[in-house]
């Protein structure tokens, strides 16, 4: 592998778990890139966040979506899990006022090792993280159990890397929708945001107990 290819591969790997110097750079890119900000705001809008909602984000990165959700859920609670210490520090700085007020709770953790929570969530969000999950079908089922009946999950993906196209994004959207259905979510639908390449979102609802 050429040196340039090695460098590119190293940088891309950082998006899965930013750390060290390159993690700092990746965190800055994720926070500053206009398309990333637009994608996160769009993702939050699809959740239809209400003022009193309890919300959970898996893989909050630099904390852009957490910031937007807490801006709306002024009487609610926003929890975030991320397995990167670098991202925890960056997101904590970005959301410091809401953290001090007790409305935002950011933790070091992952979807593979979910902590215990004292109450169900109304909405769950995951933006460009599901491709890094070791067992996505199992994790989505576990996340469904963290939602109240009628609660909603939004799983967003914008493919990155050489050769990706809108067709790549559409395929990922179909795959995510199928995973949600297998995990027991109902009313599964897909949404698309016209970025380059497109961002896709699969949305599902946790059905009431006994719902067929």
Describe this structure in words.
α3 (34-47) runs parallel beside α4 (64-72). With 212 residues, this protein is α/β, with parallel strands linked by helices. The protein is 42% helix and 23% strand. A seven-stranded mixed beta sheet has the order 3-2-1-4-5-7-6. It has a single domain, classed as 3-Layer(aba) Sandwich (Rossmann fold), CATH 3.40.50.150.
Report a brief summary of the structure.
The chain has 212 residues and is an alpha/beta fold. The chain is 42% helix and 23% strand.
User: Tally the helices: what do you get?
Assistant: 8
Number of domains: 1
Principal-axes geometry comes out as: globular
Average pLDDT confidence is 88
Q: What gyration radius follows from the Cα positions, in whole Å?
A: 17 Å
Strand order across the largest sheet: 3-2-1-4-5-7-6
Q: What is the top-level CATH class?
A: Alpha Beta
Task: State the distance separating the first and last CA atoms.
Answer: 51 Å
Helix content: 40-55%
From the helix content, strand content and strand pairing, which structural class follows? alpha/beta
Low-confidence stretches: 3-17
Order of helices and strands: HHHEHEHHEEHEHEE
CATH homologous superfamily placement: Vaccinia Virus protein VP39
- The name of the CATH architecture is 3-Layer(aba) Sandwich
CATH topology: Rossmann fold
Number of strands: 7
Note the beta-strand portion: 15-25%
Main beta sheet strand tally, sense and closure: 7 strands, mixed
């Amino acid at each position: 592998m050429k040196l340039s290819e090695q460098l590119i591969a190293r940088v891309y790997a950082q998006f899965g778990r930013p750390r060290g110097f390159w993690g700092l750079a990746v965190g800055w890119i994720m926070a500053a890139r206009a398309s990333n900000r637009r994608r996160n705001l769009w993702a939050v809008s699809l959740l239809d966040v209400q003022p009193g909602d309890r919300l959970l984000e898996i893989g909050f990165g630099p904390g852009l979506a957490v910031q937007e959700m807490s801006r709306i859920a002024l009487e609610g609670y926003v929890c975030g899990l991320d397995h990167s210490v670098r991202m925890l520090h960056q997101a904590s700085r970005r959301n410091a006022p809401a953290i001090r007020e007790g409305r935002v709770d950011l933790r070091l953790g992952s979807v593979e090792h979910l902590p215990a929570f004292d109450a169900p969530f109304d909405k769950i969000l995951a933006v460009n993280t599901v491709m890094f999950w070791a067992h996505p079908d199992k994790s989505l089922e576990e996340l469904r159990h963290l939602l109240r009946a009628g609660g909603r999950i939004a799983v967003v993906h914008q493919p990155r890397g050489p050769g990706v196209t809108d067709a790549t994004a559409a395929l990922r959207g179909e795959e995510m929708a199928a995973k949600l259905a297998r995990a027991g979510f109902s009313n599964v639908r897909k949404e698309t945001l016209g970025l380059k390449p497109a961002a896709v979102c699969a949305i599902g609802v946790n059905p009431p107990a006994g719902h067929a």
